[in-house]
Amino acid sequence: MLVFLKAAKRSKKYLGWSLVPQAGVAIGLTVVADSIIPEYAPQIKAFILSATLIYELVGPFITKLSLKKAGDIVTVG
């Protein structure tokens, strides 16, 4: 799939790590799970929200690091 992406090879290499803090869809899917399989919804919500918390805490750092390694940002100072 990334073969067709018109981006530098370094950018493609670190693209996945840059997407770590994107958890809004996962939270939305817990609402869908509640309506489809309500017997497992509490466990699904607990798991997804716990993972989201971890991703949102470490995600910005990982994103910044991956963008720096890809050469897409430069920090000053």
* Beta-strand share of residues: under 5%
Shape: elongated
* Number of self-contained structural domains: 1
Q: How much helicity do the residues have?
A: 55-70%
* SSE order: HHH
Structural class: mainly alpha
Stretches with pLDDT under 50, minimum 5 residues: none
The whole-angstrom Rg is 16 Å
Q: How many helical stretches?
A: 3
| Average pLDDT level | 79
- According to DSSP, the number of beta strands is 0
Q: For the terminal residues, how far apart are their CA atoms?
A: 37 Å
Largest sheet: none
Task: Kindly describe this structure.
- It is elongated and about 50 Å long.
- The protein is an all-alpha fold.
- It is built from 3 helices and no strands.
- The relative contact order is 0.20.
- The mean pLDDT is 79.
- It has one domain.
- It has helices at 9-18, 24-36, 41-70.
Question: Nutshell version of this structure?
Answer:
The chain is an all-alpha fold and 77 residues long. Helix content is 69%, strand content 0%.
Itemize the secondary structure elements and their pairings.
Elements: H1 9-18, H2 24-36, H3 41-70
Helix pairs in contact: 1-3, 2-3
Q: How would you describe this structure in keywords?
A:
77 residues, mainly alpha, 3 helices
